[in-house]
Design a protein that fits this description.
- The chain is of the alpha+beta class and about 525 residues long.
- The chain has helices at about 55-65, 95-115, 130-145, 155-160, 205-225, 235-250, 275-280, 285-300, 320-330, 345-360, 370-375, 500-510; strands spanning about 5-10, 15-20, 25, 35-40, 40, 55, 70, 85, 90-95, 120-125, 145-155, 170-175, 180-190, 195-200, 255-265, 265-275, 310-315, 380, 385-390, 400-405, 410-420, 425-435, 445-450, 460-470, 475-480, 485-495.
- The strands form 7 sheets. Strands 1, 2, 3, 4, 10 and 11 form a 6-stranded mixed β-sheet that branches.
- The chain binds adenosine monophosphate.
Length: about 525
Amino acid sequence: MGRAIGIDLGTTYSAAAILQADGKPAILPNSEGQNITPSVVLFPDVANGYDEPLVGDMAKHSAATSPLDVVQFVKRQMGDPNWRFESTNGSSFTAEEVSAIILKKLKNDAELVLGEPVTDAVITVPAYFDDTRRVATKQAGRIAGLNVLRVLNEPTAAALSYGLNYENNGTVLVYDLGGGTFDVTIMEIKDGNFDVIATDGNRNLGGFDFDNRIANYVMEQLESQGAGSDLSIDDALVAEIREKSELAKKSLSTVTQANIILSVKGKQYRVKITREYFEEITKDLLNTTQELVEDVMDAASKKWSDIDHLLLIGGSTRMPMVRNMVKNISGKQPELNVNPDEAVALGAAVQAYVCEQESSTSGETSLVPTTVNDMVLNISDVTSQALGVILLNENDQEENFVVIPKNSKIPTKGQRHAVTVVDNQSSIYVQVTQGDDSDVRYAVVIGDKEIPVPQYRKGAPFTVSYAYDIDQTVYVELFDDTAQKTVGTFEIDRSLNMSEESVINAMKRMNDMPIG
Ligand code: AMP
């Protein structure tokens, strides 16, 4: 049997890693020799009617010339039952299938480097992923022909890659600025448990937005240099500007000035950008991440002196302004000895090894030091959204009352008292909501039921209780406090995953699909 690998299935880039014989995790380079692979899929050969997907750099570069045949940021659609990518020749793919294509490429490339089959893997997900998206990730793995040993939180993986384990009790803050998302998580490591205390982020803020700011500046400059005023309608030019803007951004992490050279309608143009100006035009983006860090510190009731380890992960934390900001607000030196875009995959490899050992009954002796061997890793999840109930407030107006706050550890329970509002009221309408805004317009109703109740005088007391299960089912109960009995219950299954049959069909389809 081959060895288990760790996979970081990222929004913009993915990576695979394995624990080596010396007990240290190492990245498995892809077949192009790169440590990270763009999470981009191109469905080429449209003219011939084939859907032979191509994953990685080539696909990313093709975004310019064949935007309709390229899928990017599919992670944002994970677990959305209504999303499909329709290729130009009419084939349709779910987010799980597109993700499976990326995973299959990582699996194939890992097999090439290791010279052995790879079947077992740990795949990472953001801490805020709900169960639907975790199951969808697992299904993507199965479709790709992987046995997913565990779905692991990205910040936990990052902590593992920094060598934090059961010996390192303490509080960790993980600031993760990737290509398309920002996440900040506070975890407590205690006796081998990695408990997520609070997590927050912005799912639409990442390196891509920093690229866009440069791209907009470049467009303005080209226009002012006389390249034309209709540049934004040229898709290929826009894509080229984006790509060059990302390259310029990366070089501004090490040098203080970069040049972007473009040829428009046969004429060459040069746009100069300094690090100072880049930082000025992206200050608001950085500030947004700072505010979210401060929010999550508040949510976890932590002071900076409580934070024992500060980890920066995600390729965008290479930008000096990120490091400076984090240092300034925390007064601490972030730990920087792991590559920020490899940390998650490396940690997943450590967990993959641990899972493999746990399930192994072969009794083979291990080459890995006992510190890793003995590691017990339990990861607990928290609710990413508050659950509430809509009731009438003292002014007789509908209000959303939180029953289970955001960031509660799952499984969890919550209660809210309610009273009848008229004499002889014959039923209570229970509306379960998602979101913590008291204004009902901003709360999403995820389930409801009209429950008949005995007729009392106005003001009769009832209790609404929720139990939130590990599998993301919400059990709702309405209790009659006068008669001391339950008058109604219902369940809300929040799972929106592919059916077993669809997964099996997708596995067959994938089996017949060569992936480049
Ligand atoms: P990740 O998804 O964590 O691999 O992060 C990818 C993001 O990191 C992309 O937006 C990259 O442009 C960005 N990135 C990678 N290297 C650098 C760098 N040296 N400076 C700034 N951003 C970078």
